[in-house]
Amino acid sequence: MPHTEESLAAIADMPKVELHLHHEGAAPPAFIRGLAQEKSVNLSGVFDARGGYAFAGFERFLRTYEAATSVLQSPEDYARLTTALLEECARNGVVYVESFLSPDFCGGGDLGAWHEYLHAIRDAAERAERDMGVTLRGVVTCVRHFGPDKARLASRCAAETAGDFITGYGMGGDENAGALKDFAYSFDMAREAGLRLTVHAGEWRGPSEVRSALDDLGVHRIGHGVRAAEDPALVDRLAEAGICLELCPGSNVALGVYERLGAHPIERLRRAGVPITVSSDDPPFFHTTMRDEYLNLARTFDWDEEEFGALNRTALAHAFCDADTKKKIADRLEAP
Ligand code: MCF
Ligand code: ZN
């Protein structure tokens, strides 16, 4: 049945679980501009004429991301960022979110500073949970183009702080920078510390990259992983092994992985039984929100509330938090 205004509004308002959000990538442009003014940092080239983030293509995106992030210089800045991004989550009906946090950005890789940053972020998250009802968990994330040595430092930070807030370890960044197996040591360390694992793979590079993520790193989830759709045997493997894909369709279209949402393989992957989830990645960069993601998917693939409900249950099943937290969030998903 075609959607009505009412059915679309009901979908946009649904409680949501989001597994793939970059902490700095969620910073509203006005927030970053404000900090730049306070600190007299020149951010020329970061913003477009309308005040949004300027980028064209993936490489420029990575540079803009890192330039914008340069104004986040203290634990207090990260506390304010955490509050701002959780307010945006609350506006979008997100009840549980996992964000990627990098010790390379929070204190420049220094373990002592990482503890301070994390303390501030966690405090802000606990306040937001009380005030706005959004639960945040952190996934320590190394940056592929910073290389395996930095990744080892990030993994040490992750292992030192693994617990009920830091629940996972992962990697983002440029897929063309070094083979995944070069990062195996840092993923092994994180696994031994009890962390769950995810890696950005198969966004730009093809199915072999997704195979390597499974075989060389032993991850539980894959960030993006969309290009696995080009290999039917790999799709079957993902479905059978129950490997969750953290899909970010709006990001893929904004960065040009796919020309338009209709060409995105999300529906094919869903029908093939792969555990798929939907996230916003770096929402202000890609001019998206979780509400927009849901509305666009509903309109393009004709998904109804049942499909989105299943999507959220899948996301919660593959979330890295403990069983008590899952139970609490499950109750919120089921609430009338
Ligand atoms: O998912 C998008 C696009 N693909 C790859 N990497 C990233 C994305 N958003 C942010 N990143 C990377 C970026 O290199 O993650 C790092 C950034 O430096 C931050 S993780 C806290
Ligand atoms: Zn990402």
From TrEMBL:
Stored Gene3D superfamilies: Metal-dependent hydrolases
Domain of life the protein comes from: Bacteria
Coiled coil: none
Keyword Hydrolase in record: yes
UniProt entry keywords in alphabetical sequence: Hydrolase, Metal-binding, Zinc
This protein's record includes keyword GTP-binding: no
An example Gene Ontology molecular-function term: metal ion binding
Cofactor(s) it depends on: Zn(2+)
Domain Adenosine deaminase residue range list: 15-334
A Pfam family: A_deaminase
PANTHER family, per database record: ADENINE DEAMINASE
Family the UniProt entry places it in: Belongs to the metallo-dependent hydrolases superfamily. Adenosine and AMP deaminases family.
Protein name: Adenosine deaminase
